[in-house]
Each structure stands twice: as structure tokens, then as C-alpha cells.
TrEMBL record:
Annotated protein name in UniProt: Protein yippee-like
An MF annotation (GO) of this entry: metal ion binding
Zinc listed as a keyword: yes
Keywords: Metal-binding, Zinc
Keyword Zinc: yes
Domain Yippee span(s) in chain numbering: 21-118
Family to which the UniProt record says this protein belongs: Belongs to the yippee family.
PANTHER family registered for this protein in UniProt: PROTEIN YIPPEE-LIKE CG15309-RELATED
Domain of life: Eukaryota
UniProt-listed InterPro entries: Yippee, Yippee/Mis18/Cereblon, Yippee_fam
Native source species: Rhodonia placenta
């Protein structure tokens, strides 16, 4: 899945990753991303720390807009959970600065809006 930007715009969550570590929506527990899709934890969102992700599922996008962020002006669209419609972060459509182009096609998901589920199994 790395490198792809999966977008599901249906009205209810559909993607499930059996027994794989995931991030889920902190409000409704819809699966949002595989932990394997994490690129960096060193990002800032609107409400605190953020994760740069290769892809996300069970999300829908708002309107594209140019937004002034810490690293310059980017064309982004807010990303919302399809399960509960909570804003989870944004999707980078375009970066104006060449040093920021690596963000294009990626998601910034806010840590406070996610639950980390490790899917650990206890020995029986």
C-alpha cells in the first residue's frame, strides 16, 4: 500500500485490516490507516502533534484550499472520517516550495483524533 493514497468516499466505514496494527478514529473507532503507512511523527496539526501518512481509508475530503502552514503555503483539503464526520487532519495536494514536494499526495492526521491499536495477542 505504500505510496498509494486510497480514498474511500462512501458514507460508512468499509476498510478493515485483520490483525494488523492500525490507527482508528478516536470518536467512532472507524479504521483510518495501517500503522505501516506512517512516514513521520514530527509534524504539527491544528490541534497539536500530527502524523504524516502515505495513505488513509474511510475518509472523505473537503474542498481544496491554499493554506499557510509552518512550512509555507500548501494546497490542502481537510480530511473527515466517514463514520462520524469528525475532521482528522488534511491531505496535501500541492506544495509551493520545492523542498516540501515530498508531502504531495500524503495525509497529515492529527494524533489527538486517532487511537493506536496494536492488535497484540496474548499467549494462551
Amino acid at each position: 500500500m505504500s505510496g498509494s493514497s486510497t480514498l474511500n468516499t462512501t458514507e460508512s466505514p468499509v476498510a478493515v485490516f485483520q490483525d494488523r496494527p492500525i490507527f482508528s478514529c478516536s470518536n467512532c473507532s472507524a479504521v483510518i490507516a495501517l500503522q505501516d503507512e506512517l512516514i513521520s511523527k514530527a509534524f504539527s496539526g491544528r490541534d497539536g502533534r500530527g502524523y504524516l501518512m502515505y495513505s488513509a481509508v474511510n475518509v472523505k475530503m473537503g474542498k481544496k484550499e491554499d493554506r499557510s502552514l509552518l512550512t509555507g503555503v500548501h494546497t490542502v483539503a481537510d480530511v473527515f472520517c466517514v463514520g462520524c464526520n469528525d475532521r482528522l487532519g488534511w491531505y496535501y495536494h500541492k506544495a509551493s516550495d520545492n523542498t516540501q514536494k515530498y508531502k504531495e499526495g500524503k495525509y497529515l492526521l492529527e494524533r489527538e483524533r486517532l487511537i493506536k491499536e496494536n492488535k497484540w495477542k496474548l499467549d494462551e
